């Protein structure tokens, strides 16, 4: 028995039609891209002795600290930033969790740049699930 794309669509409600989540992931400048999309730039790693433990994203606590509650009188731009941060948090905790259990990878924020692009999140979730099962 295996999980099919139809199963993913039915269980999660994620769309299976749309553009595939593929492409090159550019690590350079990720903090600035995060700032552009959610309005807050993650703090740079400043410890000169230890390597950055989170080179691929931010802690979930960082998202919660900055985007806990959208202000009632927020402009449409601020509402979009909060919505993007919420979806980023949801995607990285529920659909695409990493092995750390505490990091939101910035690569899942880039597809949330344009609200009009329809992504096949279900296909990506199924591929991610199969990839994770390889490591069991």
TrEMBL record:
Superkingdom to which the source organism belongs: Eukaryota
One of the protein's GO biological processes: meristem maintenance
Signal sequence range: none
Coiled-coil parts of chain: none
InterPro entries: AminoTfrase-like_pln_mobile, MAIN-like
Pfam families, per database record: PMD
Transmembrane segments: none
Domain Aminotransferase-like plant mobile: 1-135
PANTHER family assigned: PROTEIN MAIN-LIKE 2, PROTEIN MAINTENANCE OF MERISTEMS-LIKE
Name the record gives this protein: Aminotransferase-like plant mobile domain-containing protein
Species per Swiss-Prot/TrEMBL record: Hordeum vulgare subsp. vulgare
Upper classification of the organism: Eukaryota, Viridiplantae, Streptophyta, Embryophyta, Tracheophyta
């Amino acid at each position: 028995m295996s999980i099919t794309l139809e199963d993913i669509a039915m269980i999660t409600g994620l769309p299976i039609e749309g553009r595939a989540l593929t492409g090159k992931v550019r690590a350079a400048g990720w903090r600035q891209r995060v700032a552009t999309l959610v309005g807050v730039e993650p703090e740079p790693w400043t410890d000169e002795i230890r390597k950055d433990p989170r080179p691929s994203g931010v802690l979930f606590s960082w998202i919660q600290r900055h985007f806990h509650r959208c202000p009632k009188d927020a402009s449409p731009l601020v509402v979009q930033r909060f919505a993007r941060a919420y979806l980023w948090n949801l995607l990285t905790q529920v659909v695409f969790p990493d092995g750390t259990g505490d990091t939101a990878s910035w690569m899942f924020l880039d597809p949330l740049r344009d609200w009009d692009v329809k992504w096949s999140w279900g296909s990506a979730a199924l591929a991610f699930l199969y990839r994770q099962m390889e490591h069991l």
